[in-house]
Each structure stands twice: as C-alpha cells, then as structure tokens.
C-alpha cells in the first residue's frame, strides 16, 4: 500500500525534532495563544522572546479579545461585601456564566479584595462592564481609587485625590435610582468617578467630578500609561475642557457610563438652578476632554432613573413600576441626534402575579445586557442581588439568579446601599499601568492599601427559602397606587 | 490543442467515475492510503471540498504530501466519526487567519477523540487540520492544547513546545517583576 517515494525528506526531518510547532509559527499565535485564558496568556510572556513579543502585540490582543467576545456567553460578576467580622475582612468577586441564558449552576471566585475593616464599603464603578479590560474600584471609607484587571488580579492604587465636600447626613438623591437615601457611610463625599479609554493613545483615564469644600465643581483626570509618543502623565490634573455650570447637578456616588469614547453622567434636574430646561445627560469625550450634552425629549428628561450601556448603546431607564406598573428602557440613536426610541417596555400587569410581585419588590433595577441565544432576553440586575430575564417577544419574565443561592450576603447588605453589586465580567489581556509618580509612592504607601488576590473557590448552588428575601413595602406601595387609580398620579419623587 | 482536448475528456470521465463513488482515497506523505466519506470530507474540509468540486481527486489516492500517515489516519477517523454523529450546521468558513465565529464547546465524542492523542499527535493534527482547512477540527484540537497549557509553568511550556529560553537572567527578572501578580494557578 505504501510507496516509499513520497517525501522521505520531510519524514526524517519530522522524526528528528519531535514537538513540531515552532514558536514563530503563525498557527501557534493565531490559533493557540489566542485561546488561552487571560492569566495564562500573560504568564507565558516568560516562555521566550518571540512569545513575549506575540503576546503583547496589537494583533494578538485584538484577536484574543475577538475570540473571547465571540465565544463568551454573558458572565455575571458579583461583589460580595465583607462579612461583619472583627479585624480585617475581605470582599470577594464571583463570576457565574449564563450559558444559553440558563440559570448558572456554580459561581467561581475570581478575586478577593482584602485588608478591609468590617463594615467598609468597596464599590465597582465600571458598570455594567469593565472598560477595555480594566475596572475602577473605590475604597469608600478612604476615598481611594484602584484600577484592576479582575481576570488577572493586576492592579494599581491611584494617587491620593483632593478631598471633596461631604454631604449632610439626611437622605438625598445619591447613587442609583430616583429615590432619596441616607449616605451609606460618613463622611460621604460629593463626587463621582468613572473610567474611560482613549483608543487613539491606548490610554485609560479616570475622570473624577467633585465639589470642593467651597462648593466649586471640579473635574480632575488621572491618565494611566504612556500615550503613544508623548510623555507619561502622572497623578491627577485638571480636565482640559471647561467644566460647564450644569455639571454642578451631577449625582453624588453615581459613576458615569462609558460608551464609545465618551463618558455620560446623569444629572439631577431638580438641582439645576440655571433656569430654562436643564439638560439631563452630560458627556465628556475622553480623547479631547471636552464636555457636551445629550438632548432628551422633555418628558423623558424628567423621568430618567438610570443610565446604562445596553449592548453598546446608551440607554435610559424609566421606572414607573410602583405608580404605573411599567418599566421602560429607552435607547439613544447616538451622535448629535436627539432621537430616543423605546428599546423595551415591561408591563407588570401582563406578567404572572408571582414574578411581578417579586420584581416590584426591588427598589433598584438596572439593565445589564441582552442574553445570548435567539430570543433576545434582556437581563435586569437588581439591588437585592438578583438577575431577571425579560423576554420581550413572549412578554415573559423569569428570575435567573439569586446570589443568595451561592453566598451568604451580610444582613446589612441585603439591599445594595448605593450601587448594584452585580455587573458583567469580561476577560481581556489589558495591563494596569501604575499612575503614581515615583516620588509620591513613598508617601502613599503609608496609607492603608487594599490587597487584591486571585480567588480559587467554586461554589455550587444551594436552596434558599423563598421567604428569606421578601419585602412587602413595595408591593403595598404599588397596591396603594392601584387603589388610588383614577386620581392624578402623585409626583414621581416618592 | 488536440492534447489539451484529450486531457479534458479524460478528466470528464474520471469526474464521472469519482461522482459514482461515495468515498475518496487520500495518500499520506509516507504513501499510506486512507478512505474517507466524500460527503464528510467535503463538509469538513474546505480544501478537500475544493478538490472534489474541481475534480482533482485521484482514484489511486490523492497525494497529501504535507500530512504524515499518523495525522492523516486521525483526520480520516475524525471525518468518519463526524459523519456518524449528528451533522451540525455548516462548519465551513473562509480562510481568515483566526476564526471569530462563536466557538461551540467540543462535543463528548470530540473531547474523547482529542483526549487520547499524545502531544505530538495533537500538534500534527493541528497542522493537518490547518492545511486541509478543517475549521472545526482546528477549533477542537487547539482548544484541547490551550486547555492542556493553562495550568502549566513557562518551563513546562518550553518543554512541550520544544522552545529554547532565549532570555537573559536580567530580562527574565524584569518581566517576572512586571508580572508578579500573575503567578498563580488558573
């Protein structure tokens, strides 16, 4: 059967050098290195010079991201606050994958954030997803910011920032949602910070908007990494663009949303004293650092409850669950347009009673993304650490995740006090550049630092008694409004 | 002219003969012959599909000089197993350098198929799959390799891939410093 004439040369070469894949082989780079988990891809830079070059090349980073993005079913990231223990405590980040829109059966710990005192708050400010691989984390008690690649654990502390004015103890509109709430910790700074990415220079920028102690609104920027060709900037510096007067009505504790080169802040119209029709959304282009506004129809601008990035477009939510049994998501067409369209509208009256009751119990609801699969279900995360999936075609809703099925949530955190604990997990090879100027590192090291450690646990799902998480307040509120139907609707700011 | 015409006719006849058979014969670099289902070969390999459509299939064994008998045996085995499993949607895609179509997790039989292969056989199969334009087989084999790599140290990787450490001690230390946070098991 065999004819000896065929290519004996190749045969003998192959026998002589057993593992045949050469390190400069396109196949290794394109087909194998692009499939590695982020942590391994980064570690294998140590293998040889060629791999180091390949694993830091733009081509590979793009291909790796494209492959992950294509393969990836949405993964939830859940922040478990530290338990009320004595001494130092740790917060943990758990990821769970929603394969084909099915409820997850396990959650894996991806990162622990240690060296916290009990009762301290750690917040994830990059929401609903990391910004180009990196996540902005706030240690609320010390008002210090950290930048972290959650999938590798690489992180850096930002230089100390200028102290801001603190809010009074009474309830005010802070964090997500329309309602007034007391500050979850004191002193509570009147500030907001977000993370953006400049595609032109490949730099991440942290943008912090805050009120100074004399009531001035300031925008400070801390850039990470060296811009192509330019000098490295270090530390906080004033934003290049002029801060418009409307910026004064930013909502304390509510981070801006980053989409496509710009950060978007929701403004509290009721705080605006400039007269006329105050804008509801302010933008900042991360590249040239110029402020702008997004126009919204008057009816919408008074009612926006939350801004989010839903599958890459800027969306505003209008939450009328308690007064009109509706929850709607509006999408902006982008650019300079004023056009907004209804992305999805949930009529609670059309949902089966048990799920509608459970959904209305939630004070805060934020859309995360559209689930994988044909039916375009929208995932909605809530302040009580659940994720609901709404199917707009079938007009049906189910609860996909209740984080209590995986972890014990400390009692005082049964409801997220300011921002949701749930966001999306996205792995990406992205390096964290330490933005601290060398001369500052000694002074900031004396300050207490958080410790980041990759997680190692995997948790299975467990049964939770259903009465564990019921809160009748909102159902009663809804029923009260139902009874009052026919009367003019009360003011939204309940 | 005459010669050309004659050749064309001969090809025609051969194509007709080929069309009657439902298998094709492939010949490895070391001259071994393998039969594979024509339908599966055309469905799974863009290169074989092109050869079948273009009539360049040789009845006495189509020469695949780049592929050794061991790898070709695995290719044929994979095609035949695939032919017996439920055929999935079109798996044929264009020749882009990396495939961005959603990766479907290997099915149970595909997992078993790659699990029994040695490193060398797996690497050979990657090359064969790449050469034959077998997107799915490339996916499954490369997925297996990346799975196998992820818990390993750089030292172990050098050994498996037969790569020489060309760093100086200082360079290695510098990168190690930069990556200090990445030294844990995933």
TrEMBL record, chain A:
Residue span, F-box domain: 28-61
Family annotation (Pfam families): F-box (PF00646), FBA_3 (PF08268)
Region span, Disordered: 435-467
Segments forming domain F-box associated beta-propeller type: 124-408
Bilayer-crossing regions: none
Domain of life (superkingdom): Eukaryota
Protein name: F-box domain-containing protein
Biological source species: Digitaria exilis
From TrEMBL, chain B:
Any GO BP: jasmonic acid mediated signaling pathway
Entries under SUPFAM superfamilies matching the protein: POZ domain, Skp1 dimerisation domain-like
Residue ranges occupied by any SKP1 component dimerisation domain in the UniProt entry: 136-182
Record region (Disordered): 1-21
Pathway: Protein modification; protein ubiquitination
Domain SKP1 component POZ: start-end pairs: 23-84
InterPro entries in alphabetical order: SKP1, SKP1-like, SKP1-like_dim_sf, SKP1/BTB/POZ_sf, Skp1_comp_dimer, Skp1_comp_POZ
Keyword entries, A-Z: Ubl conjugation pathway
Physiological role: Involved in ubiquitination and subsequent proteasomal degradation of target proteins. Together with CUL1, RBX1 and a F-box protein, it forms a SCF E3 ubiquitin ligase complex. The functional specificity of this complex depends on the type of F-box protein. In the SCF complex, it serves as an adapter that links the F-box protein to CUL1.
PANTHER family noted in UniProt: SKP1
Assembly mode: Part of a SCF (SKP1-cullin-F-box) protein ligase complex.
Record-stated family: Belongs to the SKP1 family.
Annotated protein name in UniProt: SKP1-like protein
Species classification: Eukaryota, Viridiplantae, Streptophyta, Embryophyta, Tracheophyta
């Amino acid at each position: 059967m065999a004819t000896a004439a065929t290519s004996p040369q190749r045969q003998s070469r192959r026998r002589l050098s057993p593992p045949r894949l050469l390190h400069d082989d396109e196949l290794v780079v394109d087909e194998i290195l692009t499939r590695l988990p982020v942590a391994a891809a980064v570690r294998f830079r140590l293998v040889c010079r060629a791999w180091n070059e390949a694993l830091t090349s733009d081509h590979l980073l793009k291909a790796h991201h494209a492959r992950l993005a294509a393969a990836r079913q949405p993964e939830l990231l859940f922040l478990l606050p530290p338990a009320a223990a004595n001494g130092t405590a740790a917060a943990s980040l758990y990821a769970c994958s929603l394969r084909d829109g099915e409820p997850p059966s396990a959650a894996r710990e991806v990162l622990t954030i240690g060296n916290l005192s009990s009762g301290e708050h750690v917040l994830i400010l990059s929401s609903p997803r990391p910004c180009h691989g990196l996540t902005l984390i706030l240690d609320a008690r010390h008002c210090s910011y950290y930048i972290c690649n959650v999938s590798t654990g690489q992180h850096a502390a930002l230089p100390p920032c200028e102290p801001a004015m603190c809010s009074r103890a009474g309830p005010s509109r802070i964090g997500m949602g329309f309602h007034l709430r007391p500050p979850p910790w004191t002193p509570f700074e009147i500030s907001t910070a977000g993370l953006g990415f400049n595609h032109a220079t490949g730099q991440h920028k942290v943008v912090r908007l805050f009120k100074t102690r004399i009531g001035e609104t300031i925008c400070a920027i801390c850039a990470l990494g060296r811009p192509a060709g330019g000098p490295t900037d270090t530390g906080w510096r004033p934003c290049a663009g002029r801060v418009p007067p409307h910026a004064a009505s930013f909502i304390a504790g509510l981070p801006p949303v980053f989409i496509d080169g710009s950060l978007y802040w929701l403004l509290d119209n009721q705080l605006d004293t400039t007269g006329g029709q105050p804008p509801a959304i302010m933008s900042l282009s991360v590249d040239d650092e110029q402020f702008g506004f997004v126009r919204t129809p008057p009816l919408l601008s008074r009612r926006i409850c939350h801004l989010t990035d839903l599958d890459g477009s800027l969306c505003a939510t209008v939450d009328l669950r308690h007064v009109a049994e509706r929850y709607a998501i509006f999408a902006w067409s982008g650019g300079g347009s004023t056009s907004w369209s209804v992305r999805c509208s949930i009529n609670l009256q059309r949902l089966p009673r048990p799920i509608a009751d459970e959904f209305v119990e939630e004070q805060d609801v934020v859309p995360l993304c559209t689930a994988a699969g044909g039916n375009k279900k929208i995932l909605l995360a809530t302040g009580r650490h659940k994720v609901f999936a709404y199917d707009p075609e079938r007009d049906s809703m189910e609860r996909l995740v209740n984080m209590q099925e995986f972890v014990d949530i400390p009692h005082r955190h049964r409801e997220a006090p300011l921002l949701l604990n749930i966001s999306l997990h996205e792995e990406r090879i992205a390096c964290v550049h330490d933005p601290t100027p060398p001369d500052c590192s000694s002074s900031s090291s004396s300050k207490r630092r958080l410790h980041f450690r990759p997680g190692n646990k995997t948790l299975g799902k467990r049964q939770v008694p259903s009465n564990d998480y019921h809160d009748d307040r909102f159902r009663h509120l809804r029923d009260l409004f139902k009874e009052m139907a026919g009367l003019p609707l009360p003011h939204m700011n309940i | 002219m005459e010669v050309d015409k004659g050749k064309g006719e001969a090809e025609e006849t051969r194509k007709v003969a080929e069309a009657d058979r439902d298998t094709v014969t492939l010949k490895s670099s070391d001259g071994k012959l393998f039969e594979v289902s024509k339908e599966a070969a055309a469905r799974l390999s863009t290169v074989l599909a092109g050869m079948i459509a273009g009539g360049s299939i040789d009845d006495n064994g189509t020469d695949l000089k780049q592929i050794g008998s061991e790898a070709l045996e695995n290719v044929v085995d994979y095609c035949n197993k695939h032919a017996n499993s439920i055929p999935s949607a079109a798996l044929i895609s264009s020749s882009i350098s990396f495939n961005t179509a959603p990766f479907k997790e290997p099915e149970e039989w595909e997992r078993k198929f790659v699990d029994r292969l040695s490193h060398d056989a797996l690497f050979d199969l990657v090359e064969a799959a790449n050469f034959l334009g077998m997107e799915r087989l490339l996916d499954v084999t490369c997925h297996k390799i990346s799975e196998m790599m992820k818990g390993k140290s750089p030292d172990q990787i050098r050994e498996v891939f037969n790569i020489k450490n060309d760093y100086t001690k200082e360079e290695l230390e510098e990168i190690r410093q930069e990556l200090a946070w990445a030294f844990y098991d995933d």
